[in-house]
Amino acid sequence: MKLENFLHPSRSWRLRQWRARLSGKSVRPPEVTKNKHENGRTSPKLLDAETVSRFLVHEYGLSLKGLPAKMSGGIESAVWSVKTDLADWVVKVFEPRPGVLEKVKGEVRLYEYLNDHGFRAPVAKKTRGGESVARLVTLSGEFPLLLMRLERLRKCTPANITAPELMKIARTAARIHAGLRNYPDKGQLFALLSQPPSTDAYERFRASPLSAQLTGAELAELERNNQKMVAYVSRHPPRPALSESVLHGDFTLEHAQFLADGEVYLFDFADRSWGPIAYGLAVPLAHFYSSDGISFARWEELRAWFLDGYASAHELTAEDRAGMEPALIVRLLNEIAYLSDKAGTAGNAIDALSIKKRYELADYLFTKERAEAPAQSAHLKN
Q: Is residue 6 scored above 60 in pLDDT?
């Protein structure tokens, strides 16, 4: 190993470890326990503003007006807003896990492609060394970092969004799916259907600190719902003729907001994948109910607006429509499992209500299906 690599601040512990091995001793990296998740990963949410500030000045040459301010949102990343004399910026820092750097670089390439094809997406600012993704090196690891212009956005919620607004967002989703079917890097994307549904979602929830927030009766109800969801998914595997494209992975109202000129601004493609469009559309449908205190009647209204808007810009085949509800149940199971795993980790405010609402939506869909079955049978007989 080169001497400069040993002397680099992020690797100074390696030199001590190397020396200790020669003497028959062992040494741990200079990381304190509070800087780690329960699973041993370092959380970018625990980086301090001073560290981020010094890095931005050194790597990007920014002249900051005060320290970066931490923003809400994100489970595996941390976001700050930064003010300078010339512009305001968003700093997004990712976990220092193997493969994340290349994944973030791929996200930047996708943003460039979208901007080149008429969509509105982030533009990454390059470092003084010409890199689109920087590496914030600390004693805890190397954190991939992305710097983007801070846009003035208007966010809608499931409770207040109007039909024209939601249909415009849906048409944007449709145009993206149509435009990314031949995306040059699609072969390098994660294949969504290669990941099986999280049929152990309830077990992972029970193992999380969230389950302590519920009564025994509530837990029993969720377990029954989970059993029905798992049984439904086993009866309805992915249909063979589903339309496929590049999927955002987390296409919610949080990540599809409005610019001052009324255009839709899309961001956070970190969970992008290649897979059936029906599975991509299941994401906003799950989000509408789980993220806000709306009724099922309102959820049905939002669902109709969204799918009508989507279909007006890109065809949904009969197979796509038939595959949507199974995809939605899979999405709900996967979200329950994921949030349960992340509950209690650094900086993540997840509560049991968010889990309950996902089970409630699944139960509503099953109840609705049972109610509609006799009417459909009578119609076929006539």
A: no
